[in-house]
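Researcher: Re-running this chain for the archive, since the previous output was lost when a drive failed. Same request as before.
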Amino acid sequence: MPLRDHFRPPVSLQAAWDALHGMWPAEIVRQLRQRLPPGYVAAPTVHPGSQVEPEPTVAVETEVPDYDEYSVRIYDVERGRQLVATIELVSPGNKDRPEKRNAFVGKCAALLQKGVTVSIVDVVTPRQFNLYAELLQFLGQSDPSLGEPRPHLYAVSCRWRPQGKRMLLQTWSHALALGQPLPTLPLWLTGQLAVPLDLEQSYEQACHDLWIT
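Model: Regenerated structure tokens:
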């Protein structure tokens, strides 16, 4: 089934974009429940950024990120619940202003530096930025498959991998288009072990659950 524009009518009249971003991570976790090998677990992380909250009656200290986060994290429980992969769904807020884009790129770069596989899925149509391209620029890398102009809808998986005495950035990128199906990405858990991340299947299930036709 095709990728829809969740930011404009008629789809935006059926369900708000943040409904999809809230539901999709759960469907990805449900899918991975059938595909992850023993010893690995997945969990959704959904946080729409900082908002104005009423003053609490009891003072508490909490760390609340001021950026949107819609993601799925995959852990190796046999290594002390070590984070091995993350799937980041880009939100409009992530592409809003330079500081927001820089925060998203910095987070992805830090995860890659720790050996975490990072997958980025961007279906945000109103804002014409490619955060994957900005990540590559930050890392001093390039991807000839991006082409010009750079697509503002895309899905990619990337990881650092040793090659001799050097580290090689491996990427699997796909331009997305409205009306076209979504790709399957490799989700690397170790240097040699990967499972398929079928974005089309989880996306369609999320749309079905939200009554999006």
